[in-house]
Design a protein that fits this description.
The protein is an alpha/beta fold. It is built from 18 helices and 20 strands.
C-alpha cells in the first residue's frame, strides 16, 4: 500500500508516502490531448497551478511540449519560453515543481528556476540528461515510452526427412533464399550506415552502457522511384498538389525524433480498423512478455542512473501508460502494479484521461474521464502506487481524502500556534483549544503554557498572549486548515480586506508543522515559512519538544538566533 517506508528526495524537499501524493498536470501548450490551450498563457498557467496547490496537489508537473499521439515536436527554445516563467513563479510560492521535458537544456534551465523534479518521458536514455541530473540534487522520474507487443513470428510447416541427401538439399534451398533476400535489400546508406542498422549503445561514466530508446523498430520507409522512372508531367503535378504542411516541415526538422514517430504509429493504430477472422482465447494478452519489457527497462534505467551517480532515493518510476501501448496492454500493466512497486522505487500512476481509461469506461471525450481516472488510480494505490498524476487535482484530493479517512487510520502529529490581543486573551486561547479538540478525527494531546509577547510586524498595538497546541489528526492539511479558519470566524476574527494583516485580533490560529507534510501555495505553506523568526512561537514550543530550533533546522527551516527574532516573549500568563 501507499503508506510504506519509501521516501523521495527532490532537491531541498523530501516526500514521504504515509499517504499517496497528488501531482497536478499543468500543460503550458496549445495542443495537449485534453486541455490544450487552456493554460497556454503564462499568467493563466500560474494561477491554475496555485489553485491546484490550494486544492490539495502536492506537486505541480509543468510541461511545454505535448506528447499526445501524433504530436508535433517543439524545439527546446520554444519549450523553455513557455515553461520557465511558470516554474519560477510556482517555486517562489514554495511549490514542489516537476518539469516534464525530454530536452536537457530545458531541464537545466527549469532546475535553475526552482524546479525540484525532472520528469523525462524518454526514460533518461539521453546520456546528456543523465550527465546533468547526476550533478544536481533534483528528483528524477524514469518513464517507459515504447511498444511492448512481442514481435510477430511466422512458422513454416516442417517436413521431417532423415536422409543425408534431403538435409543437403534443404541447406542449399535456404542458402539460395538468403542470397535472394540480400539482393533485394536497398543499398542506400545514411551517414555511412545501412538504414535500419542498430545504433551503437552510448556509454555513461564508469563504463555503464546506456540502452537505446524503447520505442520499437521504426517503420520501414518505402523506396521512392527514381526520377528516370517517373514521367516529368507526373513529377510536376505531384510538386503542385502535394506541398508539405508546415507542421510536417517542423516535424521533419527534428532529426531522428523516435518518440514522435512512435506516437504517430500509436495514433494510426488507434484510428485504423483492420478486419480479422482470427479469434483470441483470452480477454487480455499474456502479461509476462509485456512486464519483462516494461519492468526490465525501468529497472535497467534506474540502475544506470545509480551507477552514474544518482542516489537511489531520488528515483521514481513510471510505466508510461498510453505511450506506444494498446488499451489491453495498459490494463495488463496496471494490473501488475504490485510487481512494479516491488522494485523498491516510488511508483507513479499517470493514467489521467488516457485512451485506455476511455475504453474501459465508455467515455469518448478525454476531459470527461476524470471519474474513471479516479477509479483506476484507486486500484493502483491499493496495489502500491505512491504518486498519482491527474488533471483534476481538486476532485482527486476530495476523492482521496474521503477514501483515506475510512480505509487508513493514520493519526499524525501537528502543531498549531494560538495568539490573541483583544478581549480576554487567555480565555480566547482556552476556548480555541477546546474547539480544536472538537474537530473531527482530531484530538489535543498537549499544550504549552500561555506567554505574553511583544507585538510583531505591526508594533503599535497591545501585547499578545501566545501558546502552542500539539494535536493528533487524521485530516489532510488543507482540510485541517479550513477547520481552524472556521474556529477563528466563530471566535470573532476579522479576516476581511479592511482588517490589517498583522493587526489586533481576538484569535489567530496558524498551522505550523505536520508530520510528513511539505506544502506550498497561497493558502498554506508547510512548514510555516515564518516559524524560524518568531520568538512567540519557538519559546512555547520548548514546553512541547526538546530544542525546537534544532528540530526545525533539521527539517530545512532557517531558525534565527533569539536576539534576531520578532515578537519576543516578555513573561508568563499561566497554564492552559
Amino acid at each position: 500500500m501507499a503508506n510504506d517506508s519509501k521516501t523521495w528526495r527532490c532537491g531541498k524537499y523530501e516526500l514521504s508516502f504515509d499517504r499517496p501524493r497528488i501531482m497536478g498536470v499543468l500543460n503550458v501548450t496549445p495542443d495537449s490531448f485534453s486541455d490544450g490551450g487552456e493554460h497556454f498563457d503564462p499568467d493563466a498557467a500560474i494561477e491554475y497551478g496555485l489553485a491546484m496547490l490550494d486544492a490539495g496537489a502536492d506537486i505541480i508537473d509543468v510541461g511545454g511540449e505535448s506528447t499526445r499521439p501524433g504530436f508535433t515536436p517543439v524545439n527546446p527554445d520554444e519549450e523553455a519560453r513557455r515553461v520557465l516563467p511558470v516554474v519560477r513563479a510556482l517555486a517562489k510560492e514554495g511549490a514542489i515543481v516537476s518539469i516534464d521535458t525530454r530536452h536537457v537544456a530545458v531541464a537545466k534551465a527549469a532546475v535553475r528556476c526552482g524546479a525540484s523534479i525532472v520528469n523525462d518521458v524518454t526514460g533518461f536514455t539521453d546520456p546528456k540528461m543523465v550527465e546533468f541530473v547526476k550533478t544536481s540534487t533534483c528528483g528524477v522520474i524514469v518513464m517507459h515510452a515504447g511498444e511492448v507487443a512481442a514481435p510477430t513470428r511466422t512458422h513454416a510447416t516442417v517436413q521431417l526427412d532423415t536422409s543425408a541427401a534431403a538435409f543437403v538439399a534443404e541447406k542449399a534451398r535456404e542458402a539460395a533464399a538468403e542470397a535472394a533476400r540480400e539482393a533485394e535489400k536497398p543499398a542506400r546508406r545514411r551517414r555511412g550506415k545501412l538504414l535500419g542498422e542498430p545504433k551503437p549503445e552510448a556509454k555513461l561514466p564508469g563504463g555503464v552502457v546506456q540502452p537505446s530508446l524503447p520505442f520499437g523498430d521504426p517503420e520501414p520507409a518505402t523506396e521512392p522511384a527514381s526520377e528516370q522512372e517517373t514521367p516529368a508531367a507526373e513529377q510536376a503535378a505531384a510538386a503542385e498538389t502535394v506541398a508539405p504542411a508546415p507542421e510536417a516541415t517542423e516535424a521533419a526538422s527534428e532529426p531522428n525524433d523516435r518518440l514522435a514517430a512512435m506516437m504517430r504509429r500509436s495514433a494510426r493504430r488507434e484510428e485504423a480498423y483492420v478486419p480479422t477472422s482470427q479469434l483470441r482465447r483470452f480477454t487480455l494478452p499474456d502479461s509476462a512478455p509485456i512486464m519483462r519489457r516494461v519492468m526490465g527497462f525501468l529497472s535497467d534505467q534506474a540502475r544506470a542512473l545509480i551507477h552514474a551517480g544518482v542516489s537511489r532515493d531520488r528515483i521514481c518510476i513510471d510505466p508510461g501508460p498510453g505511450f506506444g501501448k494498446s488499451a489491453n496492454e495498459d490494463i495488463v500493466i496496471q494490473r501488475e502494479t504490485a510487481k512494479m512497486a516491488s522494485l523498491g522505487y516510488p511508483l507513479m500512476c499517470a493514467v489521467s484521461r488516457k485512451r485506455f481509461v476511455g475504453a474501459v469506461s465508455g467515455v469518448t471525450e478525454a476531459a470527461e474521464r476524470d471519474a474513471a481516472t479516479f477509479g483506476v488510480c484507486l486500484g493502483a494505490i491499493q496495489a502500491g502506487a505512491n504518486i498519482v498524476r491527474v488533471h483534476d487535482a481538486a476532485g482527486f484530493a476530495q476523492f482521496l481524502n474521503g477514501y483515506w479517512a475510512v480505509a487508513k487510520p493514520q493519526p499524525r502529529r501537528a502543531f498549531v500556534a494560538v495568539g490573541s490581543n483583544l478581549g480576554h486573551r487567555c480565555d480566547n486561547i482556552r476556548a480555541a483549544r477546546d474547539m480544536i479538540a472538537e474537530i473531527p478525527l482530531t484530538c489535543v494531546s498537549n499544550s504549552s503554557k500561555i506567554y505574553e509577547s511583544e507585538p510583531a510586524y505591526e508594533t503599535r498595538q497591545d501585547a499578545f498572549a501566545n501558546a502552542v497546541i500539539e494535536i493528533k489528526t487524521e485530516l489532510a492539511p488543507l482540510v485541517l486548515l479550513d477547520e481552524l479558519m472556521k474556529i477563528e470566524a466563530e471566535l470573532g476574527r476579522d479576516r476581511s480586506k479592511k482588517a490589517k494583516a498583522n493587526g489586533p485580533r481576538t484569535i489567530d490560529l496558524d498551522l505550523l508543522w505536520m508530520d510528513g507534510e511539505t506544502h506550498g501555495g497561497k493558502k498554506l505553506r508547510l512548514p510555516h515559512p515564518l516559524i524560524g523568526e518568531r520568538d512567540f512561537v519557538l519559546v512555547p514550543l520548548e514546553d512541547l519538544m526538546h530544542d525546537p530550533a534544532r528540530f526545525f533546522r533539521y527539517n530545512g527551516v532557517e531558525v534565527k538566533e533569539p536576539e534576531d527574532r520578532v515578537g519576543h516573549i516578555v513573561g508568563e500568563l499561566g497554564r492552559m
